[in-house]
Amino acid sequence: MNVLYKSTRGEAQEYTASQAVIQGLANDGGLFVPTTIPKLSCELDELAGKSYQEIAYIVLKEFFTDYTEEELKTCIEKAYDDKFDTKLCAPLVKKNDQYFLELFHGPTIAFKDMALSILPHLLTTALKKNNINEKVVIMTATSGDTGKAALAAFADVENTCIIVFYPHGGVSKIQELQMVTQKGSNTKVVAVKGNFDDCQSAVKNMFHDEKLKEKLLANGYRFSSANSINIGRLFPQVAYYVYSYAKLVEDNAIKAGDAVNFVVPTGNFGNILAAYYAKQMGIPVGKLICASNENKVLYDFFESGSYDRNREFILTSSPSMDILISSNLERLIYHIAGNDANVNSSMMKDLSTKGIYTITEDMKKKLFDFDGEYSPEKEVFEVIKKYYEECGYVMDTHTAVAACGNLKYKEKTNDETVSVVVSTASPYKFTRSVMNAIAPEYEMEDDFEMIKELSNLSKVAIPNAIKQIMDAKILHDTVCKVEEMESSVIDFLSL
Ligand SMILES: *Cc1c(COP(=O)(O)O)cnc(C)c1O
What we know:
Elements: E1 5-7, H1 17-23, E2 32-34, H2 44-47, H3 52-63, H4 69-79, E3 92-95, E4 98-102, H5 112-116, H6 119-129, E5 135-141, H7 145-154, E6 160-167, H8 173-180, E7 187-193, H9 196-207, H10 210-218, E8 221-224, H11 231-234, H12 238-250, E9 260-265, H13 270-281, E10 285-292, H14 297-304, E11 306-308, H15 329-336, H16 341-354, E12 356-358, H17 361-365, E13 370-374, H18 377-391, H19 397-413, E14 418-423, H20 431-438, H21 447-458, H22 464-470, E15 478-481, H23 485-492
Helix pairs in contact: 1-6, 3-4, 3-12, 4-6, 12-13, 18-19, 18-20, 20-21
The structure holds pyridoxal-5'-phosphate.
């Protein structure tokens, strides 16, 4: 079946998958959604035993219908290769009778790698298919993590180059080292004398600068972004839900057809939305448990039906979930409104003008797939400690928000459905917080010393992603003023 994409806000035009990947966001500011959600073509009991790549193909061929079989398989092969430190790509592990789906075995040891690994290939293939000959320039401002994940994803991908700006002195030592040691002749990392907002607005201005765009075009380049609302990032995430279901069947934890609950540590709502699509495609899912940290805007939404961003922004130990506007929620709103772009648009308008919208009773009923939980910092740290003490398993702070939410959900409901906690980062990515939870006496100045201690305690080898930066050469040392960002782009591209 041919799947087309349209905007959640009502723009009349329909797009092919490859056009939607290139464009990222619809012209009216809406997000692209499939006109119909496809079903898996494979029976549930046939999924068991398949590799990650095979399952990724089974899922992606339903969404990216204008890509040929060969194109998609090539994208998948290039994405899920030995960049991952295990052939499984997304191993399902069982600790203390609880399943964890580990999505942190990619190059930057966090779950964004699952989607960012394939995005550059989906994008460059899309350009070829649409006879666009320019090279893509990915430009992004980062406060730490996304920049590195995008660098690792685009490094040495033909017909692309990537420029990352970060605030000088505004990211952690490890984050900075991860970026400035990035290899690849098509990569450029620049420290900016300013804060993250300065970097971000300068990048936005460059994206919209017509003169600069013309200059790029004249030299065979065009800007693109790698942000998380692109369908080229969203749908690859469906694959690991299907994969984990297959693994549960393989391990006889469930029979094909039995329901499973997924517990997802949520920020921008992309990861859990992928689980929702997996359910719509035919994976038997009981509840999707949306786990929030103290920024509990989503928890309140599931409780009350009102999404209200007018609140204090709290800095927590799970920074990738410190978000007050969950962009991908817009897709869910559109679907539960019965795919009604008018209803969605008016709610998104309320969000941008008043910071709040309320869904109708009918829409609220359609949220039965979801449960919301939130966990205060203290309980998050207790859960890390509990698993470490009970079975020696060390999880990161984001994963712990989900593990904690799962315990709360079980206590509340007595639901005995098999559940999978989605594990979004290696504990080594947040060593200081994790050590604080399991062994606070080891408070040391040096991050690498802490990492060695964590390895001693957890008996888990330090991941390559960390080892590599410990003695890697610094390859990027450009520091510039905010006003010089544009000229650093021009220099890098030799315009
Ligand atoms: C991005 C991120 C999340 C949140 O995922 P969303 O798709 O934005 O909901 C959770 N944990 C980690 C480690 C992340 O990097």
